[in-house]
Amino acid sequence: MDEIKHNYIEVDGLKLHVAEIGSESSPAVVFLHGFPEIWYTWRHQMIAVANAGFRAIAPDYRGYGLSDIPAEPEKTSLVDLVKDTASILNSLAISKVFVVGKDFGAMVAYPFALLYPEKVAGVITLGVPFMRPGGPNHLQTLPEGFYIRRWQESGRAEADFGRFDAKTVVRNIYILFSNSEIPIAPENQEIMDLVDSSTPLPSWFTEEDLEIYGDLYHKSGFQTPLQVPYRSFSEKIKSPNQNVIDQKVEAPALFIMGEKDYVFKFPGMEEYLKSGEVKKYVPNLEIIYLPEGSHFVHEQFPHQVNQILLNFLNSNKF
């Protein structure tokens, strides 16, 4: 981990933290994290791709990790994160890149590919595919206690999380999101109450890992992460050259999904993927399922995921 360099790039008056490893002359891969993650979630992948001759770049989004918190976190949007990614790459003089997004990082990676197609050599997402136009409206069919609906409610997650320190909040979410069942709280409970304090961390996520996450969320807090993604789901981002309904990502694409990822059980998700409907929007998409994979498949099975990534990167190398 010591070989990973850490820099700050100023964007819109904010200092954004960027972790990086690999030669500046090598093909670049930008890694976009989800929640409750930070750049560190990509630690295994960054080293693997750098050792294979690529340049790995993993920013913390604005309001996350070591990046500055915007003055008005509640006004942060997904398009801010897309444009921040473009600004970071411009600052590093990178004209073409592979984009890798985990969880809601897919909601940054795919719009980036729509807005900047000339910059994208390929798109890889984990856990969340390209979402059909109109967004995840099917999630409204889930009960009121569904974690996304709870966290979209202004003030509710803040009160729930506020009962614990940041490390405990991250711990609870890692345990919850590692399960194969969708996190849904009964009416008289909050999402944090779904995890017993005696429940161990997943075997592949250490106390040392948790310490790093906890320290960084203690610094950043949860206000920006609750805004983006949870309170930004209705935001529409489209290519200026395409109608929302007609938008397509033509770049080579790969989707990695753990079959024990709770997202696989979202209403309509399995049919959307296995029927091939997703390929209406991403025609050059390959889907790879890992039978025992959870929502954190890249941390759970890093060697398998790294090999899948490298096969794709080497096949589409520019």
> How does the helix and strand content classify structurally?
alpha/beta
Fraction in helix: 25-40%
**Count of runs of 4 or more consecutive helical residues:** 11
Amino-to-carboxy terminus distance: 27 Å
Extended strand count: 8
Report mean pLDDT, rounded to a whole number: 94
Please tell me about this protein's structure:
There is one protein chain. This protein is α/β, with parallel strands linked by helices and 318 residues long. Helices cover 32% and strands 16% of the residues. The chain is built from 11 helices and 8 strands. It has an 8-stranded mixed β-sheet with strand order 1-2-4-3-5-6-7-8, sandwiched between helices. It starts with a strand and ends with a helix.
Keywords:
318 residues; alpha/beta; eight-stranded mixed β-sheet; 8 strands; 16% strand
Short description:
By secondary structure, this protein is α/β, with parallel strands linked by helices. The protein has helices at residues 43-51, 78-91, 106-115, 147-152, 156-161, 166-178, 207-220, 223-227, 269-274, 297-300, 302-315; strands at residues 5-11, 14-21, 28-32, 55-59, 97-102, 120-126, 253-258, 285-290.
Write the layout of secondary structure elements.
Blueprint: E1 5-11, E2 14-21, E3 28-32, H1 43-51, E4 55-59, H2 78-91, E5 97-102, H3 106-115, E6 120-126, H4 147-152, H5 156-161, H6 166-178, H7 207-220, H8 223-227, E7 253-258, H9 269-274, E8 285-290, H10 297-300, H11 302-315
Parallel strand pairs: 3-4, 3-5, 5-6, 6-7, 7-8
Antiparallel strand pairs: 1-2, 2-4
Helix pairs in contact: 1-11, 2-3, 6-7
